Every structure is written in structure tokens, then in C-alpha cells.
Amino acid sequence: MDNRASNSESAPTSGLALPEHEVGPVDPDLAGQMAEKSDRELLDMFQSPDDWTAEALDAARAELQKRNVALPSADESVVPPPLPENPPPLPESPPVRAGAMCAQHPKVQATQQCRRCGGFMCATCDFAFPGNVHFCPSCISKADEGLSGKRKTLMIWSYVLAAWSTVGMACLLSGALRGMANSKEEQTALGWVLLIFVLGPALTGMSLGITAKRKNVPNPGTLWIAIIWNVILVASFVLLMVIGLTRR
User: Fold this and answer.
1) 17: pLDDT strictly greater than 50
2) Which residues, 6+ apart, have CB-to-CB distance to 150 below 8 Å?
């Protein structure tokens, strides 16, 4: 039985036409990804459009038009079907043929093949993800295009909070705050101020960065930098706090 026909049973079809919408040229990679999705998965994309780029939504709309599946109107509620107990994993990267060389380092033997573009890469160029999924540096750098507006906002705030905490940490390490706490009560008050205005923003920035990250797909390097920056700030503050407590 055709998989596409079986997937269509859970979505409204029956020759219904999609709302008029001009769909421009669709990226072949996106078109292939949308062709692998069921009707329900494609329809669910339009229930949370902020999580998808405009190009991905256009590709989903074009695929639905091919299947003659209608998008629900704004006042219709789409009830998603129950999730399978064991969802299918992300397809693994293809195996590397014998004698293949790295695309970036022609003299180095390739160890993996990029799941997105199919290019060969050595261990240095390999970006590995759970489930035996591998991406090359070129495809990883293109991941910025897949960030939705919501995820970009989270990443920007993660950077802002990291910069704020860095300034506070610099003041702490430089001794600029030493003269502000002479008595024990003042030291306690200063400690609470540092917890709220240095550690707090770093923890929040780390949480925002992790929230913007997606599993089993390449995330942009700029997002990883924001997460790691905040993690380093949190770890440094905790280490300084432990050192300060042991010296008392």
C-alpha cells in the first residue's frame, strides 16, 4: 500500500483545494524532506509557524497542494493524532565508500559522509550527533538559515545576559568590589547582589540558549557559543564561591 495514501486518511482530502497562495520555487532539499512527512505532520507545521522558516512553510504548502490536502481555516482546531510509542529515528548518515577522501582535506581519508549534502569528511570536519547522524562544516554553517524568529530572539537574549554577567564577573575578579564590603553584614549583602545580578543572568542565558537548541538537527555555531559562554560563567562563579567559602 502506498504510504502517502495511508497517511492521508488522518487529514481532510476529498479534492479540497488549498487557499490561494503563491508558492515560489522550492528548495529541492526542503521538498525532499516534506515529501517524507505525513499529511498530519505537514498540517501541524501551520499550527506553530513561529518554529519554521518561511521557506519550510512554502515547501510544506507545495507538498500539500500536490496531495490535494486542504489547510484548515483559522477557526478550525486540528486535533493531533496520538504519538507512536516508538517514533522513527532520524535517518543515519550513509556509509563511506572505500578510498573516499575528505572534501576539505583531499589528502586525508574520509571517515564519515554528511547526511545532508552527501559530502565526504574526515574526523576533524565531522560534526556528530546522536543516532549516527553526521554533518559537514558547510551544512552546519547553513543552519543559521533554519532559525525561526523566536529562536533567534532567545539566542540574542542569551548573548545579552552573558555579556551582562561577564561585566559583573570582571568587576569581581578585578577587586573593584572589594572596598564595598568591610563588615560581615556587608559581605553577605554583596554576595546576594552577585548571586542575583551575575549568577542569575548567566543561568537565565544558559536556559534560553538550551531552549533555542533543537535535538537531532544541526544547530548554528553562534547558538552553541552563547550556551557555552553562559556555562563557563556559571561554572566560574560557582568555583569562586566554593573557594571563598573554603577560605573562611
Assistant:
1) no
2) 50, 51
Residue numbers of the domain that contains 47: 3-67
Q: Which DSSP string do the residues of the chain spell out, in sequence order?
A: --HHHHHGGGS--TTPPPPP----PPPHHHHHHHHTS-HHHHHHHTTSGGGS-HHHHHHHHHHHHHHT-PPPPTT----PPPPPSSPPPPPPPPPPPTT-B-SS-TTSB--EE-TTT--EE-TTT-EEETTTEEE-HHHHHGGGGG--HHHHHHHHHHHHHHHHHHHHHHHHHHTTTGGG--SHHHHHHHHHHHIIIIIHHHHHHHHHHHHH--TTS---HHHHHHHHHHHHHHHHHHHHHHHHHHT-
Residues 192 and 241 reside in one and the same domain: yes
Which range of 93-97, 107-111, 231-235 scores highest in mean pLDDT? It is 231-235
Domain limit, last residue, from 99, 114, 142: 142
Q: What's the pLDDT score for residue 217?
A: 64
Mean pLDDT of the chain: 76
**CA separation for the pair 100, 102 (Å, rounded):** 7
What's the pLDDT score for residue 44? 81
Tens-digit pLDDT profile for residues 195-241: 888 889 999 999 999 998 877 666 788 888 999 999 999 998 888 88
Q: Residue range 141-167: average pLDDT?
A: 81
